[in-house]
């Protein structure tokens, strides 16, 4: 009988402990929320930027442009990682934008 009580108690402790670890992992891996991106001109230079309104973690602007002269490749560029509330800004060329997105971590 003592063995069953000990096993039940040990099982409950392991389940409770693993639940606490899972709860902490979720909070530690939260990502920014409410993220948007935009492009704009400042003088003759074109920029892409992103920002997030909430959450924790970091975000960055990511842009892929299509080269219009041989060898016709793709150009990838990304801005710095920033916390929510601080824009991630990247100066980009005048080439056509193939893809633009906000990355989060």
Keyword list:
105 residues, alpha+beta, 1 helix, elongated
Protein model, in words:
The chain is 26% helix and 38% strand. It has 2 domains: 1-30; 36-104, no CATH class. It contains 1 helix and 6 strands; from the N terminus they run H-E-E-E-E-E-E. The radius of gyration is 23 Å and the shape is elongated. By secondary structure, it is of the alpha+beta class. The model is unreliable at 13-25 (pLDDT under 50). 12% of the residues are buried. The longest helix has 27 residues, at 2-28.
SSE topology sketch:
Elements: H1 2-28, E1 36-42, E2 45-51, E3 59-66, E4 74-78, E5 88-92, E6 97-104
Antiparallel strand pairs: 1-2, 2-5, 3-4, 3-6
Shape descriptor reads elongated
Question: Would you identify the regions where 5 or more consecutive residues have pLDDT less than 50?
Answer: 13-25
Return Rg in Å.
23 Å
Write down the overall mean pLDDT. Answer: 83
Strand neighbour order, sheet with most strands: 1-2-5
Report the order of strands and helices.
HEEEEEE
Oligomerization category of the chains in this entry:
single chain
User: What percent strand?
Assistant: 35-45%
Number of domains: 2
The SS-based structural class is: alpha+beta
Residues in helices, as a percent range:
25-40%
Number of helices: 1
Distance between the terminal alpha carbons, to the nearest Å? 50 Å
Can you summarize the main beta sheet? 3 strands, antiparallel
Number of extended strands:
6
